[in-house]
Amino acid sequence: MTDELIARLSADLKPVRPMALQRLLFGALLLSGGGAVIAMLALLGMRPDMEAATTTMMYWTKFGYTLALSLFGLAATLVLARPDGSTRWPWLAGLGLLAALLVLAVVQLARADNMMPLIMGSSILRALTYIPIFALPVLLAAILALRRMAPASPAMAGLAAGIMAGGTGAWIYAFACDEAGMMFLALWYTLGIVIVGGLGAVLGWFLLRW
Length: 210
What we know:
- This protein is an all-alpha fold.
- The protein has helices spanning 2-10, 20-43, 50-53, 57-80, 89-111, 116-120, 124-146, 154-174, 182-207.
């Protein structure tokens, strides 16, 4: 009887396509990220000195830091989306990257005549507003994708998706931002990303439980 019941339950099962989880999440990230880029261009536009900016270390530091955090979040999300998912290295890598950025920021401050513009800049509120705005489409798309999966820890999966989305939103915002302080990047960009990560954890707790 048991074997017959199992056979009936499994009769209509269809094989899952290879890399289905990755395909779903990558598709959600690309579509929502494209929408966020369009929103950035419509709301802010590219910084006017982009050609000159791309020759500076600060531009590439900002570019690399935000993109790396997004990729670390993506790596954690892919693992945590599975029922048996557990990982530590993306979190440790992210903390290590922040530590390295703080070292560079301290070196930059030590060489500066006036440190405060490099720390506070002139656009804290702008950064803390637009990073979450550009991250929100990515976060919502990731949560929708994760609802078709089975994360063992909904809050952690949501947190990882939030860090991925926050890093993506910060990376997109960086194309419109002309701040030149590494400490500004370490403090306020990171705070914007963490805010989105916290929102992801809350959404994950409520929407990803099974």
